[in-house]
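Run log // design_07
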């Protein structure tokens, strides 16, 4: 995308987890960039590496995980900064302030020992937005009102167990936005919520994105959310990005067999579908990942070269790239 004004760029990222069973090759050469002001989606089945990729951006990977190599270039005031090479103190000033997270389970994101108002205030005080917790709690009322928390003057004094699932997620979003970040990473933010509350939370995110001029990285396996929320989409499979495109292009003209299978497994509003299909097999064990293309054991179009060599990353249309041998002379497409 020549017109992209990047806010963050991931280059050739590798992440391993060292377990007693062996080395889990969780992220294997992932590269992408997110443009300022857009909503960028990472989508794929559970276990494909989406959350690990998101946590790697600000070095939230903990032992036994290790970021082996790569770079995460964050454009801060127009200057590129590699987040993987920053000192911990400097990175802490970015994490939670300029780049913040909304995690998928609000119950585990919130501390049960403190009120929701205290937790919003603590985040602001840590990054110098307020001088004291008392001032932060006063500001928290306005923040909770911004995220559509009902009766924020009362809720600011509530503990997490006194709130419903939707209220807790609004509280987590309030904490995430309290320092006015530039990039928000939303890791399956509606997983634990019912359908009605899911819609409310996603409508809230869209509203806040427009009002606060946010850039959003949305991680999901829900293709409906992808169609509704995203500008560009990267499809992940077994620790690799297999396809990336504009959201309309991806739904109308998916190229990779895995993307095609994902779209056949969910209702597609752009096509008539007689029935939904499942994808045979499961995501592979990444201690012993398949050689070549990691999708080849499940792929109906697999050729001999697919099991031997990793496919090249090809641009099949402007802004549309795919990693598949079908689009080389070997596949003839």
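design_07 sequence
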């Amino acid at each position: 995308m020549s017109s992209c004004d990047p806010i963050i760029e991931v280059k050739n990222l590798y992440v391993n987890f060292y377990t007693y069973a062996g080395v889990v090759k969780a992220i294997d050469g992932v590269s992408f960039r997110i443009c300022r002001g857009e909503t960028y989606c990472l989508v794929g089945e559970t276990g494909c590496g989406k959350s690990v990729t998101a946590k790697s951006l600000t070095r939230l990977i903990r032992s036994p995980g290790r970021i082996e190599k790569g770079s995460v270039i964050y454009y801060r005031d127009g200057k590129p900064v590699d987040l993987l090479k920053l000192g911990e103190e400097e990175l802490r000033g970015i994490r939670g302030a300029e780049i913040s997270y909304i995690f998928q389970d609000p119950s585990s994101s919130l501390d049960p020992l403190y009120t929701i108002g205290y937790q919003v205030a603590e985040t602001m005080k840590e990054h110098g937005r307020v001088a004291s917790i008392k001032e932060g709690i006063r500001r928290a009322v306005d923040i909770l009102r911004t995220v559509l928390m009902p009766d924020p003057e009362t809720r600011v004094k509530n503990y997490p167990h006194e709130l419903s699932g939707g209220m807790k997620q609004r509280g987590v979003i309030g904490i995430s936005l309290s320092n006015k970040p530039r990039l928000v990473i939303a890791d399956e933010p509606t997983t634990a919520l019912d359908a009605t509350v899911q819609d409310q939370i996603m409508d809230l995110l869209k509203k806040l994105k427009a009002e606060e001029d946010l850039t959003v990285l949305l991680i999901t396996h829900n293709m409906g959310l992808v169609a509704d929320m995203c500008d560009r989409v990267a499809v992940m499979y077994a620790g690799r990005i297999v396809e990336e495109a504009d959201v309309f292009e991806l739904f109308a003209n998916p190229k990779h067999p895995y993307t095609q299978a994902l779209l056949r497994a969910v209702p597609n509003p752009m096509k008539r579908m007689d029935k939904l299909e499942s994808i045979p097999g499961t995501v592979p064990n990444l201690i012993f990942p398949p050689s070549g293309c990691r999708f080849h054991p499940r792929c109906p179009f697999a050729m001999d070269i697919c099991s031997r060599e990793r496919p090249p990353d090809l641009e099949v249309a402007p802004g549309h790239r795919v990693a598949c041998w079908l689009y080389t002379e070997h596949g003839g497409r």
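The domain at 6-98+182-296 is CATH 3.40.50.300 (Rossmann fold).
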